[in-house]
User: Fold these one by one.
Assistant:
Number 1:
Amino acid sequence: LRAPLRSIDGFSQVLMEDYYDKLDEEGKDYLQRVRSGAQRMAQLIDDMLKLSRLTRSQLNHENVNISEIATDIAAALQNEAPGRSAQFHITADLHAYGDEGLLTVVLDNLISNAWKYTSKKHHAVIEFGAQVGDKETTYWIKDNGAGFNMAYVDKLFGAFQRLHHTHEFEGSGIGLATVARIIHRHGGSVWAEGKVDEGATFYFTLPNSANINIPL
């Protein structure tokens, strides 16, 4: 799949560099669309491969301080956009029993989503908390961003499913599918609640270490 895409992208780049001035405005628009489509398809292929690798990779369970991971992710996002007005409320010293690398992927996807979908809010608020139970812990990431219509909640965690147009918010539609695969591999569950223009809350559970029972 990558080989023909490289050809399309490569030749369209040649056209952009050598023949762009010879095209009328409509031709320039078509060429830019071809290039953009090829690059987007290449990104989708990369995302599919990442999702496949995450499904097959070995789980290495350990005690993980996910509050520290969440704090690092939040700091990185704020450093990338220092002009944004956004508040993070991250509960301190939350722990989980699981694969640190994969749980980092989960948090990165969910927190980055919250960051993205609050980008149009003047006062964005993103929260990360948890409720410890006897057998499992429920974690959540809440935001006051774009939200979504609960009528379409079943589509959220499917690969390449999107509830917002790409011209509103960029994305490939693979992030939440990745989250779901990782959490299910850890023996947990994932779900979401939201309301249009009021925000969304994404929940996931992980078994406590004494109750771990990982599906094959």
Note: The chain is about 45% helix and 20% strand.
Number 2:
Amino acid sequence: MQEVPVRLKRETDDSYKILIAPGLFEQAASRLARLFGGCAFVVVSDSNVAGLYAAALTAKLRELGRRVAAPIVFPAGEQSKSRRVKSRVEDRMFRSGLGRDTVVVALGGGVVGDVAGFVAATYARGVELVQIPTSLLAMVDSSIGGKTGLDVPWGKNLIGAFHQPAIVLIDPRLLGTLDPAQFRAGMAEVVKHAVIRDRPLFKFIEANLAGIIRKDEELLAELIARNCRIKAAVVEEDERESNLRQILNFGHTVGHAVEACCGYRLLHGEAVAAGMCVEADLARRMGLLAGEAARQVSALLQRLKLPVDLAGLKISAEKLIELTALDKKARQGRPKYALPCAVGEMARAVGGSYVHEVDERLAREALLEKGALPSS
């Protein structure tokens, strides 16, 4: 046998800046033109956002003398997080003659960021990515950290890649056109960040909820910045989700299963809100979380008019348990949960892991308590 070693060491610096300011979108084209020199640009957006912002950004880049392909637009909604839509985006890029010197600009919410990010990760073996989020959920969560993913019949986000953006540009004024239900759904991820890492943020949300719902510009800028700092700190310490980053999955083990059971008719944040309430109750049953803390989480989500249980969804507990076994955190078919031990702190399992194996009986009890249907 002959052995040929291949010695490779990663020495790339994937650091980037998140810029947050009201009115920043108006400066986006000039900032990108300066940052990327002679690169070509393509804006990827969805049918809700493209008519509002994509044409203006593309036109401004052209005015600055940059090579810009026509915007690529796909139907809004979770159903577009698919291999079919990704292929269509790539085909459009090839037909436009785009090469490795391309910058993909993800202009939209979480679905746009996932699809455009995965395209950027794989097109020509990887091109630059810019995130310009237009939904609250994308601003505080999905545009940061480099996760991209598509849904398949077996579950959510099961195909994807880590691909960090070169820059994230956040303009809270873009939330002025966001549907109220989408705004509330984004607040679920805001509450999640507070529960996993920042009790003062939880108090800030409770105290300023009316102004936040009114989309007060100063409050939103502060809220978004605080959430970005939480997400950035976690990602810096654990980019590839080997341990700490898994705390960001609080509410998502159950939440993803709920989404799949409902055929994705619930918004992601709505499913995560219900998932957090189930998982907080599960943490209480395991002796990790005080009952009062679990009630505080549910009460804040209820004030946001988000789901706090599974009642009315007509989902069986057994089907949810089956789907949690397909979650990305599951090992050997056993689901794992990120669970809080207090508002602002996550519980650690034996060995220091932030995810816990859970007795199926306890999981079933928590699901039934929150309105899942018993098996017939």
Note: Residues 217-237 form the longest helix (21 residues).
Number 3:
Amino acid sequence: ASAAVDEEIKALVDTDKVLDTKLNSFRSLYEDLKKKF
């Protein structure tokens, strides 16, 4: 059972990393836009 839980946690962490990356690229886009206006 604990192995399955480990897999779940790893999947969640990976999803988190993907979301972080998306957030960061969105944030830099936003900063770029602010500089232009």
Note: The chain has a mean pLDDT of 95.
Number 4:
Amino acid sequence: MINPRAYLTSVKNVRKGLETRSKIITVLEEGECSAIEISRKTGLPLHVVRHHLKRLTHDKIVEKRGRGRGVRWRLTGAGQASIEEAVG
């Protein structure tokens, strides 16, 4: 199932990307995680997770906290409402 928050305003939304971002968002709905944890929980390669986290950050759907190896990712709440309104 495609999560409405997976739709981005900055890129063309193709089904595979939507599905991938939906998986990442589903994991982050449970709480903040590192990119490695997201990769393990979703089964997605780490480079794919990092690519989509960058896209999700650009649209302010996720944000990172910390630096270096301690970086944790979380949903912002800010971009989510506008994305849901645009899709819904």
Note: The chain has a mean pLDDT of 84.
